[in-house]
Design brief:
The protein is an alpha+beta fold. The chain has 2 domains: 253 residues, CorA soluble domain-like (Beta Polymerase, domain 2, 2-Layer Sandwich); 59 residues, Methane Monooxygenase Hydroxylase, Chain G, domain 1. 53% of the residues lie in helices and 15% in strands. The chain contains 10 helices and 7 strands. Strand 4 and strand 5 form a beta hairpin. Helix 8 packs antiparallel against helix 9.
Length: 356
């Protein structure tokens, strides 16, 4: 998981410029148009930017969603026809932006982070939302469309979304973006439980690598998801004329979900930190056990080394002060018996004092 994921224009570029990205594998762009009222739905799954403009004059709610990385021409066309601010379009083109909320005259622009898992790594994708009078324009990086559930609700013609304005659709998209963090963090929690079991059973170097990987993913997720609380607080605090009072109630529910996700992130971050401490303690305890065993062995052999070293001094037996045991018939077996007795006695003493 890369530490720096933000795209940016070269230093010195004019503000609001949309610089084509460097050649690299890109997800194909898809433009989905959906227009609805309480009694009708019009949908086009493969529209173009010019075709979307004529729907602006219709009193029904217009939702334009761009999935994948938009090309500069599409951004310029949508910006000209819908009056999207150049600075906002620059943020859309340069993905990896910090979540934020900006008001531009009669238009609201919000960047949010969509938590996902790709190739076994936890990461975020940028979601950009524009809210205007009677329309919503949304952008999402990646190949998977996260808003299909919202379209099903619109097609079903039952529920609140068909009978409300564009502000409620904007809330619904923001709600899906933030709520997607719950199943992802549930999956993350299951991985932490498996990691904890491995840590308590038999920690290895691989366990340490996995702990560091999870810890880094949590830090990056926290970096991108933490500003959500500030974004929604801004929407609730500021006098946004684009939001009806009935929609603000639902925005407060989204804020509550964002706070719950942040609480889970903090909990998991503390868990990974404690796992790292447990791993280091486990390694230290294992090293202490090895050192204690080696110390016991060395302690037992100290008197034995003294005995064999003492009898290794082969002095002449002609002197009455030299070792008389060297001439005994059972001197050698007696020496072995003394050394075995010392060994057994020391082991018994160590076990009695619970050193072994």
């Amino acid at each position: 998981m890369p530490l720096f994921t933000k795209r940016y224009n070269p230093p010195g570029t004019s503000p609001g410029s949309i610089v084509p990205p460097e050649p690299r594998p890109r997800e194909p762009m898809r433009l989905h148009l959906l227009e609805y009222a309480e009694d009708s739905v019009v949908e086009n799954d493969d529209a173009d930017a010019d075709e979307c403009v004529r729907y602006l004059q219709d009193p029904r709610i217009t939702w334009i969603h761009i999935q994948g990385e938009p090309d500069p021409d599409t951004l310029h066309t949508l910006g000209d026809k819908f009056g999207l601010h150049p600075l906002a379009l620059e943020d859309v083109a340069n993905s990896g932006q910090r979540p934020k909320a900006e008001a531009y005259n009669e238009q609201l622009f919000v960047i949010a982070a969509f938590a996902t898992r790709d190739h076994g790594q936890f990461m975020t994708r940028q979601v950009s939302l524009f809210l205007g009078r009677g329309y919503v324009v949304s952008f999402c990086n990646g190949g998977d469309d996260p808003f299909e559930a919202v379209r099903r609700r619109i097609r079903a013609s039952n529920g609140r979304i068909r009978s409300t304005g564009a502000d409620y659709l904007f809330y619904a998209l923001l709600d899906v973006t933030i709520d997607h963090g719950f199943p992802l963090l549930e999956e993350f929690g299951a991985l932490l439980e498996d990691l904890e079991q491995e840590l308590l059973a038999e920690p290895t170097r691989r366990t340490l690598n996995r702990i560091h990987a999870r810890k880094r993913e949590l830090l990056l997720l926290r970096k991108m998801l933490w500003p959500h609380r500030e974004v929604i607080s801004t929407l609730l605090r500021d006098e946004q004329r684009l939001f009806q009072d009935s929609t603000r109630v639902y925005l407060r529910d989204v804020q509550d979900h964002a706070v719950q996700i942040l609480d889970l992130l903090e909990l998991y971050r503390e868990m990974t930190t404690s796992m790292l401490d447990v791993y280091l303690s486990s390694v230290s305890n294992k090293l202490n056990e090895v050192m204690r065993t080696l110390t016991m062995i060395a302690t037992i052999f100290i008197p034995l080394t003294f005995v064999v070293g003492l009898y290794g001094m082969n002095f002449d037996r002609s002197s009455p002060y030299n070792m008389p045991e060297l001439g005994w018939t059972y001197g050698y077996p007696l020496t072995w018996a003394v050394m075995i007795g010392i060994t057994v006695g020391m082991v018994w003493l160590f076990k009695r004092r619970k050193w072994l």
